[in-house]
Amino acid sequence: MVYLTRKAEFAASHYYHNPALSAEENRRLFGKCNNPNGHGHNYTLEVTVKGAVDPRSGFVIDLKQLKDTMNREVLEAMDHRFLNKEVPEFSSRIPTTENLAIAIWQRLAPKLKEAQLHRVRVYETADLFVDFYGEA
Q1: pTM here?
Q2: Which end of the chain has the least Cβ crowding within 10 Å, N or C?
Q3: Which fold has domain 2-132?
């Protein structure tokens, strides 16, 4: 089994708000991140796939195919977007880094045919990242 990781970067804005909570509860729970005008992050995304090396090509997956899939499913949909308003997954889900990693997994996993998705890692800042390995 070989593991291969591809990295990409994108920028997006969001705010944290739970409609089931009062305005005061949202402010207390999320602080500055509850500002309805949002705030932005530069994210780093690492997508790790796993599989056997194809003896004909020498690849686990064609790197261009993986890059194209990441671009189409993640970057074109999320780069320079206001996640709460422009990305369907976040119309009813708080766009935390954890939920972002899950949404990216759900977008990518069904699109990969040659290799199996192993991990989605999303860095929100230089010292915070979330790893998601799919459903247990």
Answers
A1: 0.93
A2: C
A3: Tetrahydropterin Synthase; Chain A (3.30.479)
